[in-house]
Amino acid sequence: MEKAEYQKHFELEESFWWFRGRRDVLLNVFRSRAALHAPLVWLDAGCGTGFNMTVFAAFGPVAGCDFSAEALAYCQQRGLRTIARADVQSLPYREGIFDAVSLLDVLYHKNIRDDVAALKDAARTLKPGGWLLVSDSAFNALSGSHDRAFHARERYRKKTLGPRIEAAGFEIVRMGYFNHFLFPLILLVRFWERVRGARRPDAASDLKAVSPAANAVLYGVLRLEAFLSKKIDLPWGSSIVCLARKNK
Fold first, then answer.
1. Which residues of 23-41 are buried (b: 16+ CB within 10 A; e: fewer)?
2. Which of 54, 68, 212, 214 has a C-alpha 20 to 30 A away from that of 111?
3. How far apart, in whole angstroms, are the C-alpha atoms of residue 170 and residue 164?
4. Do 152 and 107 touch, CB atoms closer than 8 A?
5. Which spans in 34-182 are helix H?
6. What is d(CA 63, CA 44) in angstroms, rounded to the nearest whole number?
7. CATH numbers and ranges of domains, the chain
8. Total H helices, total E strands in the chain
């Protein structure tokens, strides 16, 4: 992603409505199926500025890696030490040492030359039966300046991401979408951006601080989706989520 986006992540990741809502969805999807009787050794691959590592630490020891030196510098500011500079397509970890691996908005980046190969390397580091938790951008119709800022290659759908996860040696346990209720509004905004100036060269993300009231309302929408995600997989949304298990 553009270097300026790392600072935005660092400043907003803890409190911004979208990050908070995504965490709630991911945790509810994970807890709905994963047995949590013992501590889990977790890898957050493509950990960015690191706040998710502090969240996953509730399950057990967490390691993180990212190719960006800027991202890892922010991780260090958070006091995180179990981090490494690494490409998620070639993870610097032994086979079968993790109970869970997360790839959160990582696979869609244009520097991921082969997302199946990246998923296979994640599988290599997992124990048999280990968990894979993936989130990513969904539906190419929503592509815009945000995607350019994050150097996106594509946005996924169930029919594109699912077969690739299975080809990497995983069994899909759950797969659905989030940002479901806001999806029509986001689609309308993207359409208007194209009408207004589809060829704009700028690459600005949608990450911008909003008023506390707006932040609370928008988070409330995603919190409702997180509640629903305990039981159901939503049929559309601006992001996709998948929980899968490594074949034994």
1. bbbbbbbbeeebeeeeebb
2. 54
3. 9
4. no
5. 51-56, 69-77, 115-125, 145-149, 158-167
6. 6
7. 3-246 (3.40.50.150)
8. 9, 7
User: pLDDT, tens digit, for every residue of 116-134?
Assistant: 999 999 999 999 999 999 9
Edge-to-edge strands of the sheet including 62-66? 83-85, 62-66, 42-45, 98-104, 126-137, 239-246, 170-178
Q: To which H or E segment does residue 98 belong?
A: strand 98-104
Which is it for strands 98-104 and 42-45: parallel, antiparallel or unpaired? Answer: parallel
**Amino acid in position 95:** E
pTM above 0.85, yes or no: yes
Sequence-ordered list of residues with C-beta below 8 angstroms from that of 129, at least 6 positions apart, any chain: 245, 246, 248
Report the SS3 class of residue 234. strand
Alpha helices (runs of H) in the chain, residue ranges in sequence order: 3-12, 17-33, 51-56, 69-77, 115-125, 145-149, 158-167, 183-197, 212-228
- 54-72 per-position pLDDT tens digit: 999 999 999 999 999 999 9
